[in-house]
Amino acid sequence: MLGTVPVVFLIFPTCLTGALLYMAALDNATGNPMFPWAGTASTLTASLTAFVQFGSMFTAAFYLEQTADKRKEEVMAIEDDKEVKEKNERDEQIQKCYANVTQWNALPFQSKSILVGSLVCVTSCCYMVQFFTSMCFVKHTLTDSIDENLDGNALNLFRPLGWTALALFGTSCALLHVFRTWGNKQAEKLLASGKTVPLTASSEVEMIP
Fold first, then answer.
1. For residue 37, what is the DSSP state?
2. CA 137, 141, 142 angle in degrees (round to 5)?
3. Percentage with pLDDT > 70 across the chain
4. Burial class for 118, CB neighbours closer than 10 Å (0-12, 13-18, 19+)
5. Dihedral (C-alpha) 126, 130, 135, 138: value to the nearest 10 degrees?
6. Is 137 helix (H, G, I), strand (E, B) or coil?
7. H helix or E strand, kind and range, residue 22
8. Residues 6+ apart with CB under 8 A from 198
9. Domain coordinates of the chain in residue numbers?
10. Alpha-carbon 36 to chain mean position
């Protein structure tokens, strides 16, 4: 717990930037900014956040490299966890098998249809949200009240076309899940057989090492 305390230096600038952005969007009764200075301050803290994030990654990479170089023998002397190693090797084989059984030319018609259907749904959803935003959603900003702007119900954010886009996205995810489930089962069967997998509709096969 104590060892993770320094992460506060990464979190604080990000939280501060978010708070200042929120304050910059607030208006008083006359319509003027409630905190005129917050916009400038948020820009400065955003720059600080980027610097801190970049600096932390650079520092971590530097010390990891230094430790791996200076204490190479100690690191190499650490024995691999047998169970984890076996699991990693099996996962690697499963990925190879999955890549083989899901090649386009090797897919049956039903699986191709599911994959194409998923693609069509998510593409349609993206175009609807991008080009017909006002027809999909009610205009609502971070500082707007759900009670006043959406009649107390957050679901009122969606217009009928927005619900359609959401349904298309959900359908795309469901179809992709079906396809991946089928692919994983085929990969498991291939791994268990240890033999071959068809690459095309013909008799071409590839040996899995």
1. T
2. 130
3. 93
4. buried
5. 100
6. strand
7. helix 8-24
8. 106, 204, 205
9. 2-77, 82-207
10. 35
Q: E strands, the chain, where?
A: 196-198, 205-207
Angle, CA 207 vertex, CA 206 and CA 209 arms, to 5°: 140
45 contacts 13 by C-beta, under 8 angstroms:
yes
**N-terminal to C-terminal alpha carbon distance within the chain:** 44
Answer yes or no: is pLDDT of 200 > 80.
Answer: no
Whole-number Å distance between alpha carbons of 198 and 106: 6
pLDDT bin (cut points 50, 70, 90) of residue 195 is low
In b/e form, how buried is each residue of 153-191, taking b as 16+ CB within 10 angstroms? eeeeebbebbebbeebbebbeebbebbeebbeebbeebb
